[in-house]
Amino acid sequence: MKQFFTSALLEWNRDDNSRSMPWKGEKDPYRIWLSEIILQQTRVEQGWAYYEKFIQAYPTVQQLAAAPEEEVFRLWQGLGYYARCKNMLAAARQIVSQYHGHFPNTYEAIQSLKGIGPYTSAAIASFAFNLPHAVLDGNVFRVLSRFFDIDTPIDSTAGKKQFATLAAELLPHGESATYNQSIMDFGAVVCKPQQPACKSCPLAKKCKALHLGLISLLPVKAKKLVIKKRYFNYLIVRHKDDFYIRKRTENDIWQNLHEFVLIETSTPADISEIKKLPAFKEKVGDIRYNIDAVSASSKQQLTHQTIYSQFIMLSVTKKPEMPGYTAVPQDQLDRYAFPKTITDFLKRGELSLF
Question: Could you give the C-alpha distances from 158 to 146, 222, 262, in angstroms and in order?
Answer without folding.
Answer: 17, 11, 43
